[in-house]
Structure formats: C-alpha cells, structure tokens
User: Fold these one by one.
Assistant:
Number 1:
Amino acid sequence: MPAAATKDNPVPGIVLVHGGGGTAFSDWVKMWNDRGYAAIAIDTEGRIPNTNANLNSGGNSFESIKHHGPSNTGYRDDAKPVNQQYLYHAIAATIISNSFLSSFEQVDASKIGLTGISWGGVIATNAAAYDDRFAFAVPVYGAVAMTGTDGIFGDIYEAHPKSSILWDNVEMLRNCRTPILFVNWDGDPFFKVDATEKCANTAMNARMVLIPELQHGHLQGAT
C-alpha cells in the first residue's frame, strides 16, 4: 500500500503477473506503490520468492511447503482436464488477486488494473476477457492470436493445438469492454506484432504501442 492510502483516501490498485522464470517481484510492487497504486504481485506457479529476487536478476524462488497449483510446462499439460492445467490456475489466481485487493478499504475497487509480462501477458489477456471488473489491462509482449505466427509462441501452439483453442482464441476479446493497451516491439522473438495488432483490432477498447528496441525481459517490460 502507498503511505497515503486510507479509507477516506482510497487509491487505485494493480495486479502484476510475471513471465517465464519470474516470480512475485517486490521491486515491481514498489514501482507501482511509488506512483500511488496499491499493488500485488503473484507467483503463478505457487512458489515463494527469495529475498534477493528482482526484476533484473529473475525469479530466485523456491517451492512452497504446501501443495499448490501446477507448474508452467509450456502447455505440455494440454491432455489434462482444463481445471488441472497451469494456465487455468494462473488465470484464476489473477482474478482472485483482483478480489483480494478489492477487499481493502484503502483501495478503490473500481480502479484496479492489470499488467503482465510475456507469459504474464498471455495470462493478463485471458483474465481481462473473463473478468470485466479490471479497470484497465496492459499485456506486455504476450497476448493471444499467436497461433499460426512464425514466433516461438506460434511454434508452441502448433505443437499443442488443444491449448491454442483454450487459451489463444482472439474471439474472447470481441466482447471485452476493458480498456487494453497492448505493448510490444517489432523484434520480439516470442510474440509477433501481427498477432498483437489483431488483438488490438478485435477488443472493443484497445490500442497497441510498439516501443523500438524494447528487448524482452522483466525489467524492460515492467519499466
């Protein structure tokens, strides 16, 4: 929570979703606290971040002592029932994080946004489509509509077509009222710009911004 957040002065909030190799980054939370937002970062694989985990160095996390949801295997769990797949749990955790922030009287529940980086962008796009309470969403690099592209995620969906149907369907955005800003750069090897553009053109209230030479990483995406 920002220091100024009170019941009489509620602040906006944001849910932060990491990408591959990431975790719940405390410096990412602080980045938004310094801008007046309440913030929550989650580890989508149920792990616990080490004290030295940061946006620049990576995850540095260890396993929870209790049972948690499935790990990210790059859709190799696509033969399992939907509710046993990693992305199902990651999206659910993102939606629950909205509810959690909303429970604090210091937070304006009508002004809770969402951003995700890389895999987190895939998760954020899906979560915004399923949960219209988010005031805004900013997927960085990752989104949907990657099936058939020549990027790394295009190859992943070609290898796992069931996951493509479940988690990469751009039609989920057609009735999504959430304002969305899709962020990418034209040299990204994972998520191709033509798919990002398709997402921006399909969602009801969306724009795309390309940042030249952005590079692909947690620190770059968060910044």
Note: The chain has a mean pLDDT of 95.
Number 2:
Amino acid sequence: MRLCLAFFVVLGAGTVSASDVFPQPPELRPDVDFWVSIFTEYSTEEGVLHDNRNLGVVYARVAVPAELSRRERNRRIANRRKELQSVLRTLAAGKRDNLSDEEARVLALWPAGVTNKTLSTAVGRIRFQLGLKDRFRRGLERSGRWRDYVNDQFTALGVPVELAALPHVESSYNPAARSHVGASGIWQFTRSTGRRYMRVDHVVDERNDPFAATRAAGRLLAYNYSITGNWPMAITAYNHGLSGVRRAMRRHGDDALVDILRNYNGRTFGVASRNFYVAFLAAMQVDQNPDKYFPGVKPEDPTKYAAVKLTSYVSADGLCEATGVSERQIARHNPGLQATVWEGCKHLPKGYELRLPVAATSSPLATLIAR
C-alpha cells in the first residue's frame, strides 16, 4: 500500500500544515514549476536550455535521442546554446526594434523592461537540463517497495513523511544508482557522510541497502533540522552540507529562504544545491498527485521479508546451504553486501541483519540460521 499523507505537527494550541513546514514563497513558484515540467513533461531523450538562475526562462527544447553518441549529443546542445547566446548578445547591445522572430521570442521570455545588463549576464547562464519523465514514473513504481517502511521510520524519528519524496530527486528510488561524485543508493549518501550513520567498508556498504540507508537518512535529516531550525535549510543541507548552509544562514538570515537560494554565492553552492529544495517541492507535488501527472501508474507491492541478525560470522556458501537460497537471490535482497563476500574473501559479519523474502525459504529464516 502506498502512503502519502499530509504532515501536521501540533505546536502549542495550534497546528502547522505541510505548506508551513515546507514553505513555497511566490518568488520560487517558477522554479518549482520548472522542475515539475522536467519530472513530468520531458523524457530522457530530450531536455531544455534555460537560464540557471531564473528557471522560468526556458529558451528551447532540444531532442537528444538515445541513439545519439555522447559527442553528437553534446555538439547538438552546444550549437543551440551558441545560437541563443548570439541572440542574447544582440539584445544586450540594446536592440529592441526590427527584431527577428527568434529575437522577439527570446526577449518575450524576460519581464518587460529587462535591462541590457541582465541580458548580458544571461549569456553565460544558459544551462541544459535533461528531462526525467520516464525515470520519475519508474521511481513512483519502485517506491512502493519501501514506502511504508520509510513512513514508519520517519514517523518514529519525528521527520515529516513528505520527505519520502527526496529519493525521487536523488535516485528515482533506484538502489543501484551511483553518482559521478561517489554517492550511492536510493538516498545517495557519499562515503564520508554514510560512515557517520552506517557501516561502509569493503565487506558491507549499507548505503546500498534501502532499509539501512532510510534509517540513516531520517537521522541525518532530523539532525540537520535540529541545527537549522527549519526544513528548507535542513533539506538544502542534505545536498550542500550543514556547514555551508549555516554560513549562508549567517550571511542572509536563518529564514531568508529566497535570498539564500537567489543570492548566496558560496564557493560550492552551485546549481544542484541552489535547486535542491525547489526540486524537492516539485517532487513532493508530483508524488502526492501521481494520477494527475502519470495516469494509471501503480506502485509495486512491498516484499514481505523475514529479517535475522547473525550471531556469528557466516560464509556465503554456508548461508546458501543452510537456507536453500541461491547467492544471486541473497545478494539481490541484501545489496549492502560487498563483492568480497560473494568472492569468498570475507564472511557475512556478526551482527549483520540478513533479509530474505518469507516465501523464499521452506522454514522460518530464524530457524534455518539457528541451525
């Protein structure tokens, strides 16, 4: 069963609604709308060229079919960007009369009276964003496997259950997701952050275990909130890091959400960090209205698991023999186990929480392990 409940907290004599917990100032509405369109209108075979600070300014749609080589795809994007930059330079030079159709179209994307300086600055801010429609739909389907667990863990930690939408932004709920900076799993923990909350080594990497990583994500988000005092900054810190967010808050104000996202120029506060909260708001909007954006989408059913903590070290071969379950099946349901275990170099460690589908074994898992 897929749960997506509105979050309400009792505070004194009143209640605070989800819109208060996750504020969406009018100034950020174009940004949220932009990410909703990326998640629901554009597939991974197309994308848009847009202004990286004013997301409501979308210059062009660019097709990047899967059959294109990376080089051809980059060439196509670069050529269209150069065309748009040429138009912006012309407009920035002050041209406002006798405009070509393309010049008039680009100028109309900006507010009336836009200055030449603004247009000149925009020349260097054209960014390409790939569409994610097909990935987001698949993520909505996959999320059913763990959604009840996420909600239970977050509720126990006092974390709003709406934050279960974050993996849509991070990984599309894909346990095998890996980033170019080494982040891993559905919650995209880096090794350094992961080690604060989980076991991450050459035997077990719990970042890849959706259950262990969910507990860790809840604890990290709760900690961020305890320091920042509000969820927009706690969420931004999940991507950017707490120290960087605290610097932004000291510079602009604890609750200066729009000012921080628009104007903070921290050295590493790039496009990803600046957009993380608004992308979350967009993902939450889609996640809470799946039939509106993806009619007929059906979340997968969660697997009914038996879980046992190992009381001693166990070899992969010994485990397979005891349970009658293949290595491949065990590995599939325990993605935190590293290759060293399956290669026979290391045993499953004492204290490891083993999970197998109830239907996979002929006797209760605890009984089989105890033997």
Note: The chain is about 50% helix and 10% strand.
Number 3:
Amino acid sequence: MTALIASTLQPADRRRTRILFPRSATEAVMLATVHDATYIAGASALQLGWDQRSDWPLHAVALQGLAELEGIQRRAGCWHLGALTSLAQLVDAEALHDAIPLLRQAALSIGAAGIRYLGTLAGNIGVAGDLLPALLVLKTQLDWLDTQGVRHRWPLTQWLATPPRHGLIIEVRVPIPSAGSHTSLDKLASRNAFNPPLLSLASASYPQPGQSDEVLTAIGGSGIAPCLLPVTQVLLQQTMPVRIAALGELLNQCIPQSHPQRDYLLTAGAGVLNAHFERYPDE
C-alpha cells in the first residue's frame, strides 16, 4: 500500500471522507491515482494515525472483497500470499507455519487477536509495521500494480527504498528457507511501561554449500525505518566483545539520534543480535 496522503480535513470532518469501492485491482489503482487517495483494508493502523495527526483523507479506496488480492498458496518453493491476507490467517495457516515458522512468530507478536483479524499483510508493509524485519530476512518479493495497471515484481528492499506512489501490492512472495536454515526474532519494549515494541530484530542463517552460511539481519520499530543491517562474516568471526561493539555501531547508524530510549536500544539490541548469532552453527 502507499503512504498516507495528507489533507486539510480536521477530525470533526472525517464523515466527509469518501470511500471508493473498486471492482478490480486495476480499477483500484485508477481510482487512487485520479482522486489522490490512499488504500484501506482493515485500516486499523491508518485510522489511528488519522486521528492522531488530524489529517483524515478526502478519499480512500477500499480493497476488501477483491478476490485477486486474497489467497495463500505454496508453489515452486515459494509461498504466495495475497495482499489482503490477514495477520490472523498468517497465524492460523499450519502448512505455512511448518515451512516458515518465523513468519507466524512475527504475525503472532503483533497486537491482540482483534488487531490481527483486521490487519493485513500488505497493510502492515504499507505502514512500516512489525512484520518487516522478518520479511526482510526471508528475502521477500512483492508483486504490485503501477498507475498504468502494469504488474511488477520487486524485492521488498527496493519497495522500501523507493515506494511507488499509488502502487498497489497484489501479492507477497516468501521463499521457503532451505533445510538447515535458522531464524530468530526478538522485540525490545520500553523499560518504563507496557508499550508497543520499540525495536524489532530478526535474523536468518542460510547454509551455503562449501562456504560460510549467509546471514541476514534486519531491524524496525517505533520511529525506526525498517532495514537490513550490513552484517559481514568478518564481524561474526570477531570475539564476543568486539562483535557486540560492532553490532552496536551498526544500530547506531540506523536508530535516530532523537529516539527517546536510544542508548537502551543500542546496548540491548546489540546484545540480542549477538545472542541470535550464538545460536547459529558455524558462526
């Protein structure tokens, strides 16, 4: 989904927001382009943001009911997940869990059951949600429609770097990790109160015949842009104190200086990531 388009509406004017109901994904893109509208499905995160920022949109394109954006299928070593797949469906799909347990773990860690019922896979991507670190280390790809109705396939990393205006995610493709792969996921919350996670950390180790395992690490969280960390084999082969210091420096480059609990996240995050690597063989 695309970023929210701000408008001059005030919270009291939200009844004036016009909801548009397309008959197809192509029509949805057309409506979003013509009306400069945002896409909505469960809208759990978007509605909260609209209330907080006092910028309800003039138009929104509702995607629920578009069959081409639904479905969970396994094909050719990859899970094909419709954009409207709910977080609850990710949790409940047993075959998907057996093949990619990290994805279910990440979905289960998001909100309460009601939020998971409303929230969608593509919607979570669109609001830079808590699924992204796991999706990044799983080498996820996105199928999406541009404003001309042309279908593209991009790595998730490319989408996050240059999100296309009014681009509509159609399908999320998650490769099935090879045998011998290992994954980890942790979240750091506030030390002061029961709050949503401040920092999510995911990693994956993929065996490579005849060479060192490929290791991917990603972070995200409140006020933190989701991204892969450039963890190298040289770093992983260092002694523990040197490794933890290096991981802290990588986090230092990604966590904004203005973050209210930055020092805590740098120290605790480096320790958590080091623990991930300690679990993986041959690292």
Note: DSSP finds twelve helices and twelve strands in the chain.
Number 4:
Amino acid sequence: MTHNLAPFAFHTERRLVVLTGRKARNLEELLAHLGEVSGSSIFYHTHHQYLAHHFETPVFHSDFSRWASLALLEEALAEKLAAIDLLAFSSIRQLREAIIATIQPYAKGNGRRQECMPGQEFHFSESKSFVMPSGIVAEDIPDFFAKLPGVANTSLYFHFFEARLRLGRETNDFSAWLAYRGAEELARAIDRLNPYRMSLDELRDRIARLGK
C-alpha cells in the first residue's frame, strides 16, 4: 500500500504521571534540575494544562511560570516564561534550552537567592504515555472530516502536541497525512493553526471548518 492511499488511524493515549523525586526551592535549584530531568518532564510541565478542560483560560499554562509567580513572586520572570512560543520549537531540547536561558538572568541577578515558603517547592513530575489505536479510522479525506467530530480530545492532543514536539515530527499528524493524500493546501492551512491559543474543542472546530 502506498503512502497516498493509506487510511488515517486516529490514536489516543493514556498517561501515568509520576513524581521524579526532584524538587526546587529557588531558581538555582530549578536550573540545576532543568538541565538533568527527562524530556518527558519538560513536556509535561509545559503542556499538561492544554489537555485539561477549562471553562476559563488559566493565567499560566506552564508550571514553571506559575511557580515563579505564586511561590517566588517573580512576576517579570513568570511573564517571560509564559510568553515562550512553544510552537517555535521542533524538539524538547530546544524548548529546554529556551526555558533555561529565560531563567538564568534572574537566578544570577543582584546576588539574590529568593526561596519559596516551606511546602511550596517545585516538584518535578513526568508522564509515561501509552499510545493505542482509538478504533476510529478514516479511509479518505471526506471520511476524515466526517469522523473528526467523534474524535476525543486526548486523540487531538496526541496528534497535534505529542506528535510534533515530543516525538519530533515536522508537523502535526493530520497535516502530514493530508499532504500524503495530495491535499497540500489544506495540510498547510491546518499546520498554520496555533493549538496553544485555543482549547482542544476550538481546535477541532477550526479543523472541521477548514475541511468544508
């Protein structure tokens, strides 16, 4: 079977979140751990809020920016961490380096060693993902858009967030498959969507509208 005839199999995932045993009381300790924790931990702390359903958009999606604001009262740093454009990176390594580079000036500035209150330490976690077929398979492009409304948010999350950054693919899985099918313009239109600026429900709706 050639690539352009292959159906699209929607996948989903189950995640097991575990503590790593690493914790930070200040920015120096945070930096030390950031250089050593797994890529899974970096991905988890910058992405897990996007999978959660919120009736209101949180102020900070990143756990690092939230902790800098609430535990260390470093508002300027928190805003800069929150402003990191996740869509600009194609690997966890690049994202890790950007986070470290953002924090370093604050960790060294003015000889400060601002520590959080006891009980407010940053605890590093990581998620172990178990990817599996969802049972939904699209045989062609019209079938893809017909079945898209029945796809779970966990599947959207996997094909847009996990596949592109954590798995190091050049684009989201939907655009890659549509391009193989010969729908390059539609593939580019979906690739231009920024999933970090909308909920997963909104993302599904935007993709569906592009396919009409």
Note: The longest helix spans residues 92-108.
